[in-house]
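Database export, one record per block. Field names are fixed; values are copied verbatim from the stored entry.
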Amino acid sequence: MSLEKDYYENEIFWSLSNLQGLELERISKSYKLIPDDAGSVLDAGCGNGVFLNYILSKAPRQKFTNLIGVDTCKTALKYVNTKKINASITKLPFPDKSYDLVSALEVVEHLNVQDLGMALQELARTSNKYILISVPYCQILEDGFVQCPQCKSKFNLVHHKRSFDKETITTLFDKFGYHCTKLELVGIQKELALLMPIYRLYKKINPPPIRINTPCPVCSNHILAPEEHKGNAASNPYRKIATVSKILWKFWPTISSYRWVICLYEKN
């Protein structure tokens, strides 16, 4: 098993908890974008089934004739309450036009260039009419950068490999014969005005310590566990920054942005 695959098999990522807050908003709005004439749904890269399980809990039993999830992670699939298959989004084991709607929520931002092209082609191939995609919106990837202690490479901690704005998301399936019919911006988030650019510059110069087990995508070094990076407030500047930030949030002006974008595509 590769280090990255082993990373995603970690139970801590998938154990179900109550869906709430911004995540609930994202899933709820994704569900509401499903067209009325979509009676079958394939969720590619379904993870622990949070979207499919939500559909089961909300939709009338007779609305969907076929719900199925696909993921490469066997640990995640344990939590999916619909039909499920252990397979890759880059090689979906279904005939052409198998499902009215094919979804991939919070998936494509993780794919490298080659896998992204293969995945988009597979989503378009297996869909009979609709594709539903959600990704982080205008994400500044560098905000999540950490540095491998072995090879010194910097990478996004949650392995996001690309950022999407309105233009890139709406044209994602143009060459596959689909066009965007609906777009939703979801999850208002705030940051401290004027201070974030300074903080980002500081992080670029002084990458923060890694807080979770993760494989380095460059040298494949399995980064040390969180407890091995712990330090007291006096030796860890990021703890000091966190303490100051809590105070600033009480009175400092903030600016708002959206966390995700959801796009529904229809076959031309």
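Remark 1: The mean pLDDT is 88.
Remark 2: The chain has two domains: 3-189+257-267, 195-248.
End of record.
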